[in-house]
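SEVERITY: medium
COMPONENT: batch folding queue
REPORTER: lab tech (J.R.)

DESCRIPTION
The queue accepted two submissions in a row. Attaching both inputs and their returned structure tokens so the on-call engineer can compare them side by side.

ATTACHMENT 1
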Amino acid sequence: MDARNEFRTILEKGGTDTHTACRLFDELEEVVLEELLGTWQGMEFYTGHPLDGVLKKLNWYGKAFHDAENVDPLLFESPGGEIFPADPAPVMDGRKLVKAAGGKARMRMVLHRGKISAAMIYDNLPIFDHFRKVEDGLLLGMMDEKTAAAPYFFVLKKRQ
């Protein structure tokens, strides 16, 4: 089965294990920075990671890439439908959503797992989000947190 079909099968099934997600990530195409520009809606890619389900409970919307120096790494949706950027530091340490002015990350091309591909680097956290292309407008993301035992996976779909 090719990587795109396997990706779809995993989504339909509702998840996989970390080893399979890593192998699938490695098989997908690299992403260049220009492809990231815009607003992306996110969803979790379940692997049994401790963060699985956390962003969904917080009503995570996705990410917005404005330019190489200005990325909103976490967008959330209010009960009234407003999409807003949140400061990632309070979210990651288990506190609460705090609206941010935006631009709490940047993007660069980074060598990771044998390929040079687009990555988002958080300004104030030891985290890189690496991206691989499933197809145009659809990405598999891998959050590489310095202190985590395993990567956290997510999906981004281009909205604008």
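ATTACHMENT 2
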Amino acid sequence: MIRTFDYENLPVVDIVNDILLDAIKKNASDIHFDPTEKDLRIRMRIDGVLVDYSRAPNSVKRNITTRIKILAGMNITESRLPQDGAIKNQLEGNNLDLRVSSLPVTDGEKIVIRILDYSMSNKGLDKIDFSEENLALVNQMISTPNGIILVTGATGSGKSTTVYAILQKLNSPDTNIITVEDPVEMKIEGVNQVQVMSEIGMTFAAALRSILRQDPNIIMIGEIRDDETARIAVRASITGHLVLSTIHTNNSLSTIERLLDMEVERYLLGSSLEGIISQRLARRLCPYCKRPKKVTPYVHEVFKKIVGIEVNEIYEPVGCSECINGYKGRIAIHEVLRINQDIRDAISSGMNKKDFRKLVYAKSNISTLLQDGLRKVIAGHTSFEEILKIIDINEDYIGEEALKNTLIGKNISSPQKEEEVEILDL
């Protein structure tokens, strides 16, 4: 993976161009330029994992940083304060849409370039890894004339991709769609997109107040970040608008709790919330080198208890010239909750957390993140180990209860089983 350049003789312009083109070819999501005392360490995040790419000597470290800042329209004379910029250009037939961030560190300026790729959004909702059941639930949600739909997950979990895919499905000549974003990441023809500029008072909340006077059918809020935005978004959804937004939470239950913590009135949340889509990204097994392996008795029991399927064989990563350590690309893992009347009543009445948890996860036919992930393991899309990395079983209601029941009364004597129990933190 390590690439060497003739840093002393090649023009910096060509070196930076080659790095950008390489990153696009490798389907990297980010490029990191980390200054150290001895050199400039260049890394790329591929399929969610940072890998070393190259090292530039100190003699060109400043030149590379300056070139990137020029491309991004940033102030090259300011190196003491963080800056943000963007690169939108064409390079050897490739359309570049990059977000650039600089951060002053001990040995210089750290630069991170985020490579935006919304090709999955353009392919449609049915191409972003929803199971048939979850896709049907999402289509039911977005067909409602009003209410609020939230897409949740950590940074880099593909929330924007899902939201844009929904917007493109809803986009039609007879619909007025207005978005409020920071920044506007993907331009969609026929959609009115508003750029937040907090420094002049154009905040999410301020933009939302104006948007409500623009006769919208659908409003998309890039992210619910504060109490005021949350309250305005919920109120907008009960006055005849369909509201889409994202929020940083782990699953459906924690999303509802977070909104209540933001002082959204219970009766408003109960009547306005239409659905929650929670998601994570797992590395996808390389189709060229993955191989089947027998499952251990414990893993067999995990599948049986959590998804109700007898599984004797799953796939594992190997590694070949087409992939990185047996993985190539990523797959989305989803949890889709369609709010029913029982859940609405529980939110409005303030049901205690334990009973509410059971209502959401045990009585609403929801497929949890863990269940969806394990089904994709069975289908050969990803590995069992990868699912354990991205989903904490102790946070998953069905997984936690099922696995505890699996272990009750069992004499776990083999080292292999003891190791598996330790991995799962049970």
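NOTES FROM REPORTER
The two ends are 37 Å apart (CA to CA).
No errors were logged for either attachment.
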